[in-house]
């Protein structure tokens, strides 16, 4: 059973959702965002899928009021499109369509941020410090894991040698008795 400290560390690893691409506030004049892409990454849908997996959770975390619809029923040969709908203003602004096919997720985020006039939220010093602590702990865990694997391999090899020696001894005793 994990300790409280281990549980808290796992919670701190959720820090990724608070910083990075997509960690921005969207103005209230944006009514909704809808995306249409294919399930598979073939034929130019890799960037849109990565955008949905990495950037969209951050965007939703910072803007819980914003309805975001993701439709994954498109075929791979169809376009991957994002549509940004705006609330009715005096000029009745038209929805903005962003073609996402064959674009990396950073480029898709930049187009969305520009079209919606999103304001990036920089990470605080506490978040940066916690991120460094997480990286440091992960590096330490990697070293410990490698040492444990080496120790397990050594113990396994010793057991194999011991078993081989027992078999040789039993074979020698059986040959003496016959």
TrEMBL record:
SMART domains: L51_S25_CI-B8. The keyword Ribonucleoprotein applies. Transmembrane segments: none annotated. The keyword Ribonucleoprotein applies. It is found in: Mitochondrion. Keywords: Mitochondrion, Ribonucleoprotein, Ribosomal protein. It holds the Pfam family L51_S25_CI-B8. Its main location: mitochondrion. It comes from the Eukaryota. Residues 40-119 form the Ribosomal protein/NADH dehydrogenase domain. PANTHER family: MITOCHONDRIAL RIBOSOMAL PROTEIN S25, SMALL RIBOSOMAL SUBUNIT PROTEIN MS25. This is Ribosomal protein/NADH dehydrogenase domain-containing protein.
């Amino acid at each position: 059973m994990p300790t409280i400290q281990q549980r808290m560390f796992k919670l701190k690893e959720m820090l990724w959702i608070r910083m990075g691409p997509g960690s921005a506030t969207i103005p209230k004049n944006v009514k909704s965002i809808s995306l249409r892409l294919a399930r598979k990454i073939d034929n130019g849908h890799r960037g849109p899928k990565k955008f949905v997996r990495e950037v969209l959770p951050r965007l939703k975390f910072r803007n819980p009021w914003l309805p975001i619809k993701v439709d994954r029923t498109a075929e791979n040969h169809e376009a991957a499109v994002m549509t940004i709908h705006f609330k009715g203003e005096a000029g009745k602004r038209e929805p903005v369509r962003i073609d996402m096919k064959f674009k990396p997720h950073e480029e898709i985020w930049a187009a969305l941020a520009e079209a919606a006039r999103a304001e990036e939220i920089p990470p605080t010093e506490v978040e940066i410090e916690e991120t460094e602590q997480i990286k440091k702990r992960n590096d330490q865990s990697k070293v410990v894991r490698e040492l444990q694997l080496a120790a397990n391999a050594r113990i396994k090899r010793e057991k194999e040698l011991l078993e081989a020696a027992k078999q040789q001894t039993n074979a020698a005793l059986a040959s003496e008795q016959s």
